[in-house]
Amino acid sequence: MMLMHLRCAKLASISYLGLLAIASTAAAAQDSSASDPAEANVSNAKDVEAADIVVTGIRSSLQGALNAKRNAPQVLDAISAEDIGKFPDKNVGEALQRVTGVQISRAGGEGAGVTIRGADPSLNRVEINGTTALSTTVGGGRDVDFRDLPSEFVNRLEVVKSATADMTEGGVGGTVRVITRRPFDNGGKPYLAGSAQAIYADIGDHMDPRLAVIGSDTFANGTLGILVSGTFENRNVEDHQARTTGWVQSRDLNGDGVRDFIPDIPRYVIDRLETRRYALNGILEWRPSDDFKAYLESNWTRSNQSVTSQYLQTGTSGGIIDTANTIVGPDNTVQYLRMTNNTALAQTSQLGVSYRNILGDIRRTTYNIALGAEWTTSNLTLTPKISYAKAKAYNNEINATAAVTGMPWLEVDYGNGQQAPKITLPFDPTTTDGINQLTVLRRPRYDDQSEKMAKLDAEYEPDAGIITSIKVGGQYRDLTVKSKFFTRTTTLNGFSDPAVQARIQDIVSGNAALGTSRFFNTGDLGFSDGYTGWLNMTQGVADAVGVPDPFEAGGCPERSGGTCQVFTDTWEVGERNFAGFAQAAFAFDVGPVPVSGVIGARVVNTKVNTSGFQSTSPGGGALPVISPVSYTSKNTEFLPSINLKADLIPDKLQARVTATEVMARPLPQQLAPRFTLDVVGLSGSRGNPGLQPFRARQYDAGLEYYLNKTSFASVTYFRKEISSFIQNTTEAYVDPTGVTYNILVPTNGTQKVTINGIEAGAQLAFDFIDVPVIKNMGVIANYTYSKDSGYEGKDFFTGDSLPFQGLSRNSYNLSAYYEDDVISLRGAYNWRSKYLLVAQGRGNNPEFGEAYGQLDASLNVTVMPGVAFFLEGVNLLDATRKENANSVYRRTIIETFGRRVYGGVRLKL
After folding, report:
1. Cβ neighbours, 10 Å, residue 618
2. Among 205-209, 642-646, 710-714, whose mean pLDDT is lowest?
3. Rounded to 5 degrees, what angle do the CA atoms 904, 32, 197 make?
4. If we measure between CA atoms, which residue out of 374, 76, 195 comes closest to residue 902?
5. Cα–Cα distances in angstroms (integers) from residue 76 to residues 71, 282, 624, in the given order
6. DSSP β-bridge partners for residue 781
7. What is the mean pLDDT of residues 306-316?
8. What is the DSSP letter of 318?
9. Which residues have CB under 8 Å from 223's CB, separation 6+?
10. d(CA 8, CA 1)
């Protein structure tokens, strides 16, 4: 408790001192600026006259977002930077959660992936300046991890929810456009800006640095512009979890005639990732005339993560339930579990507990380079572009696990405020008592994605007539995704060999430690008298045993060829796409109402080549035979679209109606000829090279009312009809030893999911209220309601229909701000209701993410032109994230990542 109080005091003192310094500086700056009353009155009069002309900071950001929304031909929402190198949030993903209809997933408390109108992150397209952003997901995905993309590079984020024919396909939910700054954004004026800040995370009591710099200038009489920016961050990312891996309905414990849900593998987790992030962005742009521009641009990111995640994991499969002392609570769910050892099992399968550490490192790298131009001659504009994008992920996972097998009993109590597992062992988990097995494994995985792209668009603008432009174009994309997996294990069993047992004790005693953080020292676990720490199997333990080399020739003699490469999880997927489009923009009047829009169609031909390996058992105890396999498939999609706008009241009230068809391709890992087994859960998965893409029709109808250059209100009805759905089905697989596994197989289902929803949003500046303080304030709010039908997922046990995966019925964002020439203050709260994670998880239960809300705030003080101090807080209410197996009494994850505070200075020359 003392340690927790010290950390809280440290966080409070840092926040208080920062606020005190900023407030005093702000007061001095305000006193100085208003020292002459007459001068102040003149200044105020000028400010009133220029109120609609010159804006900075938050209002500048809101105006940029408003203009992007109003002028776009599609249904679009945007977030703009407040200044050079100053974005409203520290993370691109966390910024996107402020957009209507967008929810995010988190990793270690950081925004990682985005869901748009209920569509999974892998069903959304992400572009950086029009170039594809590839995935670094381990195992081969399409979702983009936004944690590694620094917000300091960003000029504007756009979420496009309806499509036009000239947009690259791939977003069933929508397209996220990340638009970075360019050399001529501010008229080509030179500048140099940067920031230096410290990040404090109370969960691990860490103070970490973050640096950013961005500079731009023009040369050759203002025709050549160069922009270069870079960031560095060293973050100790940490989160703590109390998990129950699954809830199994296996037997009736209380005699009421209904089988009860019993917890499977309760465990505690402390995830630690020391993360170093580097990013570079460069743009060279040439504008010799108003009719021609050419550019060369590139982005590069690197994330190096050192992993030291620590688990206390029970092995309940080897125990016998003590029914006399086990209590069943609400929802036929065990509330208090007592187990005794099943000595009839083999020693390694008996009741036990493991102190497991995931070690090693994760390295993610992305880069892209693009060369393009825009040439206008008379009424014709040509825009050629070529690009190359690359994403690499290397997960060098090392596990060090010390196990106690043959443990006499185990107790797990869920009778607390959070229904969290309170684990009680027959010995102290901070000692080596009972440890009789030590395992070290290394299983590196290499994932590699690359895309080559070339396109040419031509747009002709007639001098007169209803048709305002005709645009045609073609695009070629060649995507390659590769994945290689290796694994090798060394195990020391001491329960039958005293010499090995002595060695195990020596290794653990000499190298194991306790964790650096008190378990769940932030958040709400539901109880405070449980274990605060357990043995930490450090890299020293792994080194003392000897980390096995999975690349050694003949290192795994139990496999074909003696190789440690897992060929059934080694594969390559290639996609070659040819697309062409034609669209026309038009404008005409219906009576007094101006109407404009874009109508067109896109045709896409895709050829998919997949290759991998299959394993065939010849029988007779012989090793499986590994042989290569390959598959080819192709499909052609026709994607029409129409987007209409009507100015019902010129410059004030605008209506939109859209109808579009969109598509998204299956995950590479779903297409790959791969096969994996989980020997613990008796489950597995395989790919399906014959999968067809997701297809959807979507419709929008909305009204947008613009009060002035800063304020607006909007409401949009949307409907999304998703067909050619990809779902996981289950098939049985019997291995050569006779063990049956449940294998998940992705298939194209016949179900058609329809999502209907309403998005409502408003941003309102109070500058029309001529009252001191209030006129400097404003609010931003949005709300999304979504309801699905047609999804065929059912609760395995009750048969009840389930909602569409990832879709929250309700979500909202609420922000309030105050801004004057010196002080900028903003608070933002984001909330979403529960959502389905998976229709059939471990134990066959559907699993849900519970409702979650988070409060963030920022304070910025400009002490002189070009110099500002800031203090920002993330998750100020210390929210705890939870998941469950279809009941709050069957919680599967309770996670805390604590608060983060950023404090620093921004400079601009």
Report:
1. 10
2. 205-209
3. 5
4. 195
5. 9, 27, 54
6. 762, 814
7. 93
8. G
9. 286, 287, 288
10. 11
Closest to 138 measured CA to CA, from 757, 569, 540: 569
Surface-to-core class of residue 659, CB atoms within 10 Å of its CB (0-12 exposed, 13-18 middle, 19+ buried): middle
Q: The tokens of 427 are what?
A: 């010995």
Q: Tokens for 408, please give them.
A: 């006499």
Written as one string, the DSSP assignment of 113-181 is EEEETTB-GGGSEEEETTEEPPP--TTS-S---GGGSBGGGEEEEEEE-S--TTSPS--SS-EEEEEE-
Joined together, the tokens standing for residue 807 give: 């879709």
d(CA 733, CA 737): 11
Count the residues in the chain: 909
Rounded CA separation 215/293 (Å): 20
Query: How far is the C-alpha of 885 from the C-alpha of 840, rounded, in Å?
Result: 9
Query: Percentage helix, strand, coil, to 5, in the chain?
Result: 15, 55, 30
- Predicted confidence at residue 187, as pLDDT, reads 87
Nearest to 83 by CA among 871, 824, 709, 766: 824
Cα(864)–Cα(868) distance, integer angstroms: 7
- Residue 51 reports pLDDT greater than 60: no
Rounded to 5 degrees, φ, ψ at 538 are: -75, 175
Burial pattern 129-161, b for ≥16 Cβ within 10 A else e, equals bbbbbbbbbbbbbbbbbbbbbbbbbbbbbbbbb
Cα torsion 731, 737, 739, 741: sign: negative
The percent of residues in the chain predicted with pLDDT above 70, rounded, is 93
Our CA angle for 722, 726, 727, nearest 5°, is: 115
> Over 70: is that where the pLDDT of 24 sits?
no
Burial class of residue 846 (count of CB atoms within 10 Å of its CB; 0-12, 13-18, 19+): buried
812 token code pair: 């909202």
DSSP character at residue 794:
B
List, for residues 583-635, the tens digit of each pLDDT value: 999 999 999 999 999 999 999 999 999 999 887 776 666 777 888 889 999 99
792 vs 754: CA distance, rounded Å: 11
Burial class of residue 370 in the structure, from the number of CB atoms within 10 Å of its CB (0-12 exposed, 13-18 middle, 19+ buried): buried
Q: How far apart are CA 745 and CA 739, in angstroms?
A: 19
